[in-house]
Amino acid sequence: MERSLFAREALLPAGWARDVLLEWNADGEIARVSAGSAPGNAPRAAGPVLPGMPNLHSHAFQRAMAGRAEVRGHPTDDFWTWREAMYHLVTHLEPGDIGHIAEQLYIEMLKHGYTSVAEFHYLQHDPRGKPYADRAELAHRVIDAARSTGIAMTLLPVLYAHGGFGHKPLNAAQKRFAGDAASIAQLLRELIAAYAAVPRLAFGVAPHSARAVDALELTEIVAAMDGIDAFAPIHMHASEQTGEVRECFETQGVTPIHWVMDLVPVDKRWCFVHATHATEEERSRMRSALVVAGLCPSTEANLGDGIFPFAEHFEQQGRWGVGGDSHVSRSPFDELRALEYSQRLAQRVRNVSASEAAPEVATNLWLGACAGGAQALGQPVGMLAAGRRADLVVLDGNDVDLEALDAPGALAVATFSGNANRVRDVFVAGEPVVIEGRHPREEQARDAYRATLGRLRLRPPG
């Protein structure tokens, strides 16, 4: 049985089109996209229709500390001091907490237009750093949260072997992340076997960073992933902070992205998360290899990481997508606005993500992030086209700020006018998961999340 939706305006790969009939099959795959069509018996979308946005970088548990590290604790407060607050949270999280936090987060993501997520999953062990009886205990929790909410997921178990360059030992909190190439590969095999029949769930791997894996471990985990699935995504934090770049050069003789690309074959299944301080030569190598730059503008701004030179990357048609990372924002509109504004501040000009041929900034940003995000997740999403999954976002045509606007104007207002959520309905694989701004599990998830926060925040700091 096929299902359908009629849109007065929809954002297709080539741009906006009118009177679009979207049809998909029982598996949630788009069968036909017909512009200039009559609606027939199809339901009518309540506003412009967009492809669902992939969130290419998530640490779900960090949702519980969003906004909780905004008191200066050091004369040079930066990522490294923020990380201590994150480690404090890590030492108190139990499996149930992780599931409740993830469910709340994924509902928030869906309500704001994310329809799939790459979970960069590095919590592996109990708070003492000991393996659970089922080594996949915490992976099951985030997968269960994705399944209960309806968001699609690419789970990326993380290889995290060292506390810093030069084989620095893991600290007490980092022991929850500990693993080697063999253990992470085995975890992946077990998860893939356990969830083989589950739709909208994919797997990849994530060597954490140049500071957390050495050359042998990196080559081993890439080789293991090749043996498990040679097309699966590989994500890695790279060049997020200047301190990381400096230490990598001091210990390895090269900067982080050069270090990775000189050691292992890097191609379009790779996503370098952040890449904020990648050199010009490294960015050129990324573009040549079709690597996705995984940009997380809200988190990068929150941590004071710096500004990725997106204007150049956009002009050179580099691949990129956006992620929520620490989840100080749960909206793709926030991320795209922060990305564009960072470039305006750096360049001191307006409307950076545009060209004479493609002047609509919001449209360019949405299409670009969808395309790069889909590649990074390794899922058939990111565009309204036959053969792709019917992940759809419907803007609220009744929103007062969208009154009398065409679809490009409506998307621009949704992106650049305040923080009101203009998403009305959301579909994943053709199934409605948000209807008139509501998710069916939002009350239950909020109550469980509230109880989790209440327990965690009763603990004394430090």
Rg, alpha carbons: 21 Å
User: How many strands appear in the DSSP assignment?
Assistant: 16
Structural class: alpha/beta
Q: Share of helix among residues?
A: 25-40%
Mean pLDDT: 96
Q: Note the main sheet.
A: 5 strands, parallel
% residues in beta strands: 15-25%
Please identify the top-level CATH class of the largest domain.
Answer: Alpha Beta
Write the layout of secondary structure elements.
Layout: E1 3-12, E2 15-24, E3 30-34, E4 49-51, E5 53-58, H1 79-90, H2 95-111, E6 114-121, H3 137-149, E7 152-159, H4 181-194, E8 201-203, E9 206-207, H5 215-228, E10 234-238, H6 242-252, H7 256-263, E11 270-274, H8 280-288, E12 292-295, H9 297-302, H10 310-315, E13 319-322, H11 332-347, H12 361-377, E14 392-395, H13 407-416, E15 423-428, E16 431-434, H14 442-457
Parallel strand pairs: 5-6, 6-7, 7-8, 7-9, 10-11, 11-12, 12-13
Antiparallel strand pairs: 1-2, 2-3, 4-14, 14-15, 15-16
Helix pairs in contact: 2-3, 2-14, 4-5
